[in-house]
């Protein structure tokens, strides 16, 4: 069906195209005048495996158009999820995009950027007219990849990839029935994942005779100390555990805390030793989980948990930024 010009809304068309999730690339070349050029492009796609071909398209309005149409080679960099700043830099017209950037040696003179998810070094095979863009098809003459999770772009914004639990399969699927409603409840999922995760360090806590409340106080004071009793209570308020003077006094009596001044608490040498052991066990547990999740989904999980924490934050003091006792 042809789109009637009077009803065609380019912005709406762009929004519909934005439903197609892509990665983000930077394509670079060496201009005839010797200057490096580069643009952020999400129009990149694979074309053929044998021979290995890829494509991308560049707006005819781009300043770098002449450089790309006359360059015989270009490099495509699939950006990693922590390269948003670089994506934004190369999406700005006419900036000195390469100053201060570390480059790798490239067989062609096209700049080769570092720390990406994957890189493809290409030789121009074809150039096609594509409306207000030029389509470049390149033969891949070299490539490499890393384990860095890729950056995505969808509905006009950057995103991270989350893998679905269902595998890619062309086999006919048996009906597995629908999951119980309660299994999808966020509260259940968060609670269960918390308790299973903490369960991994419970034996270390038990060995040291530490309760969960002791653990919260000691780990807090390993990040920020000294703190007053009210500051400690404020920081661990999210756990709903009441950290009162009795608990703090008991920790002092056991030699795990010391009081540099009245109503001021810090870890003793013994307390520091105890919490370092527990934190080491927690790190090992985390490393195991990340290993099984993979870096990409671990980054995704951290991102979502941080968002959930900030959405539900009732106004707790900031542990990692505020360094003074209040
Ligand atoms: C995520 C993202 C994807 C983009 N994809 C393309 C693309 O595929 N083709 C294109 O011509 N411009 C694309 N752009 C816009 C260019 O990066 C931008 O116009 C750039 O300034 C062109 O550089 P130049 O004018 O210095 O040549 C994209 C921008 C962003 C932020």
UniProtKB/TrEMBL annotation:
Q: Which domain of life is it from?
A: Bacteria
Residue span, Flavin reductase like domain: 17-160
Q: Which UniProt keywords apply?
A: Oxidoreductase
Mind listing the GO molecular function terms for this protein?
FMN binding; riboflavin reductase (NADPH) activity
Coiled coil stretches, renumbered: none
Is 4Fe-4S tagged as a keyword?
no
- Extract the Pfam families matched here: Flavin_Reduct
Its family?
Belongs to the non-flavoprotein flavin reductase family.
* Name of the protein described by the UniProt record: Peptidase
Write down the species: Rhodoferax lacus
Question: What taxonomic lineage is listed for the species of origin?
Answer: Bacteria, Pseudomonadati, Pseudomonadota, Betaproteobacteria, Burkholderiales
């Amino acid at each position: 069906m042809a789109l009637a010009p009077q009803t065609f809304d380019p912005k709406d068309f762009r929004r519909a195209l934005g439903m197609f999730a892509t990665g983000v690339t930077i394509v670079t070349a060496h201009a005839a005048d010797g200057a490096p050029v580069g643009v952020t492009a999400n129009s990149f796609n694979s074309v053929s495996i044998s021979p290995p071909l890829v494509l991308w398209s560049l707006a005819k309005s781009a300043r770098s158009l002449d450089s790309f149409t006359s360059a015989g080679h270009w490099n495509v960099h699939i950006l990693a999820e922590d390269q948003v700043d670089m994506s934004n830099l190369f999406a700005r017209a006419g900036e000195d995009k390469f100053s201060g950037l570390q480059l790798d040696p490239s067989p062609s003179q096209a700049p080769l950027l570092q720390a990406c998810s994957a890189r493809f070094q290409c030789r121009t095979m074809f150039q096609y007219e594509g409306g207000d863009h030029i389509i470049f098809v390149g033969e891949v003459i070299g490539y490499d990849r890393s384990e860095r999770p890729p950056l995505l772009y969808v509905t006009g914004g950057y995103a991270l990839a989350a893998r679905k639990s269902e595998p890619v399969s062309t086999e006919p699927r048996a009906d597995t029935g629908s999951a119980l409603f309660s299994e999808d409840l966020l509260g259940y999922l968060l609670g269960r994942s918390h308790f299973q995760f903490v369960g991994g360090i419970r034996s270390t806590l038990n060995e040291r005779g530490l309760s969960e409340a002791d653990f919260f106080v000691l780990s807090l004071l390993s990040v920020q100390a000294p703190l007053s009793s009210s500051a400690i209570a404020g920081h661990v308020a999210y756990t709903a555990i009441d950290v009162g003077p009795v608990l703090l006094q008991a920790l002092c009596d056991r030699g795990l805390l010391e009081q540099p001044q009245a109503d001021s608490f810090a870890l003793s040498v013994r307390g520091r030793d105890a919490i370092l052991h527990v934190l080491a066990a927690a790190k090992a547990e985390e490393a195991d989980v990340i290993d099984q999740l993979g870096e990409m989904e671990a980054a995704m999980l951290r991102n979502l948990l941080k968002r959930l924490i900030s959405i539900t934050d009732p106004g707790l003091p900031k542990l990692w930024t505020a360094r003074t006792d209040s």
